[in-house]
Amino acid sequence: MSRARRSLLRSALVGILPAAVMTGVAGAFLTHRLGLGVAYPEKALAVFAAGAALVLWRLPKHHPFGAFGAANQVTVSRGALVALLAALIGERTGAGVPLFATAAAVTVAVLDGVDGWLARRQRMASDFGARFDMETDALFILVLAVLAWQFDKTAAWVVLSGVFRYAFVGAGMVVPWLRRPLPHSARRKIIAVVQVVALIVTLAPFVPPAMAARVAAVGLCALTASFAVDILWLYHNGARSRTTVSQS
Asked: How far apart, in whole angstroms, are the C-alpha atoms of residue 221 and residue 211?
């Protein structure tokens, strides 16, 4: 491994290892405070460690800068909070759990606007950082959807909100035209924000289940429509490409 790659990995570990420690400490505190299962901190650390391993694996090849960067560090912090939320899956839902989940989710959502701003301000925007942010968002939405179901705020259909993207990626492994790059779209970003906000409102303990289900349904419908637009674009674009190849 080259010296530059070793330096980059050290830079990343300087940010990742403290976040891992804080995840463990926060997990132990929440276990005591919220009456969670004894395995809760280990679950949170396992989720965080899996994400960190993927980041470190992809970093040397795909990160174009010599340092990890503040923007990616913020995304790591978001990932730690998502890990704490993910570890709530399967835990008993005491009085304080939905409140903590809502507060943590709001923090993750707010920080989502910080990492991109930092990357642009420091001139360290990259495809790696964008992908890191996107994968964190995808897991975040899936976790929120599962928790909304677990907290009995709505029925199991809400999990579709988190499954859509993973199903889309999985389908792309079988259908080549689904792997084609999509054009940048403000609509896609807005729908992602709508989806996150809808799920946070659904989780909130002060929102009654009937209203929560309606809000979650609106978010899911918006997400479904957005995916439908993208799939149709990919299909027609793929069809034009196939026609061009067959005529050549």
From this structure: 15
Length of the chain: 248
Q: Does CATH number 1.20.120 belong to domain 3-247?
A: yes
Domain boundaries defined on the chain: 3-247
Q: Per-residue pLDDT tens for 169-226?
A: 999 999 888 988 888 888 988 999 999 999 999 999 999 999 999 999 999 999 999 9
Distance (Å, whole) CA 83 – CA 63 = 23
Q: What is the CA radius of gyration of the chain?
A: 20
Our CA angle for 28, 40, 107, nearest 5°, is 75
Q: Identify which of 63, 72, 75 has the alpha carbon closest to the alpha carbon of residue 126.
A: 63
Taking residue 95's Cβ as centre, other Cβ atoms within 10 Å add up to 9
Distance CA 34, CA 96 (A): 6
